[in-house]
Amino acid sequence: xxxxxxxxxxxxxxxxxxxxxxxxxxxxxxxxxxxxxxxxxxxxxxxxxxxxxxxxxxxxxxxxxxxxxxxxxxxxxxxxxxxxxxxxxxxxxxxxxxxxxxxxxxxxxxxxxxxxxxxxxxxxxxxxxxxxxxxxxxxxxxxxxxxxxxxxxxxxxxxxxxxxxxxxxxxxxxxxxxxxxxxxxxxxxxxxxxxxxxxxxxxxxxxxxxxxxxxxxxxxxxxxxxxxxxxxxxxxxxxxxxxxxxxxxxxxxxxxxxxxxxxxxxxxxxxxxxxxxxxxxxxxxxxxxxxxxxxxxxxxxxxxxxxxxxxxxxxxxxxxxxxxxxxxxxxxxxxxxxxxxxxxxxxxxxxxxxxxxxxxxxxxxxxxxxxxxxxxxxxxxxxxxxxxxxxxxxxxxxxxxxxx
Length: 404
Ligand code: PLP
Known about the structure:
There is one protein chain. The protein is an alpha/beta fold. Helices cover 43% and strands 13% of the residues. The protein contains 14 helices and twelve strands. Strand 5 (166-170), helix 7 (182-192) and strand 6 (195-199) form a beta-alpha-beta unit. The protein is globular, with a radius of gyration of 22 Å. The chain starts with 12 loop residues before the first helix and ends in a 5-residue tail after the last helix. The relative contact order is 0.16. Mean pLDDT is 93; it is low at 1-8. The chain binds pyridoxal-5'-phosphate.
């Protein structure tokens, strides 16, 4: 049994996660993060101690659950620079994105709503916009990025000049890890009068986010990307009565809140707020260590994305001539890395992000996303580097007819 009352930091993680030693090295933190054991202990408490229905106003159990939710709203808001009354809990970012879009469409000035989005947005945004486009409620405007996935102010301005109602922009990319300068972009968008939805799913808890100062209309976050539980996230918006407006639009009334998930989300945000800076600089050092070991052994390896402005844990590489699925097949039981985002990797399609960046077919086919997280150790990084290099050599050898 794992003792969930332990409250140690990273060093104690091994003791609290008994399976870890026998598992592959986890380097896929963009897909999801392991739950911090301190978060798990809060979830456990909400399930077994404060298990009341937060809507039960007649007794102490309901009150205790309500208190957990109120505390979580404070913590989520504090992490992203907003106010607790603007936090609406959802089942994750995908749901929050859909609700924000529905709200923007129905409160918008015109129909169809003109929505600008970058070509590197997450599938959750692209699919929501595509569905609304098919039903005639949205007219999309695609914003191009350059070969490193960067967005130029001129291409954004060209979009805004066509008369845009809503801009969807990710704060950080889930494949190549680029961080977008939301503060500056938000100013540009404000001047045009358009509204702004920021997908901060990969950014929150890793880089500072200031929803209020940036005057963001809709901000989206998800607990499982910041060492919290899966199935809980939030839509954060200063729009008055947003929730009642949305529930009218989607014919839903408020159900029983997911108190354990929400309480865990709050605790995950609290920990990130306190520990983010220290953890992220450690993570960046581990990422750099891995990058230099791989570069030293694989001279033709390319590192993709905006190297001057990417998430600390992100290492996105291309190994020309080495099919990424052959490599992940060899590494499957040793190192957990991925060929693309969690959603596209199951679908066997080329990554829309790498296509938008104009990467050659060879670089797309040999692309790998590596995501370092706060529980990784130097020893794991060194072992992972060796395993990856050995797998690359083996794939190259088998392709040239040698047997290994
Ligand atoms: N947006 C980005 C940038 C993501 O990386 C993800 C998840 O991979 C999502 C949205 C969807 O988040 P969720 O899993 O909470 O629905």
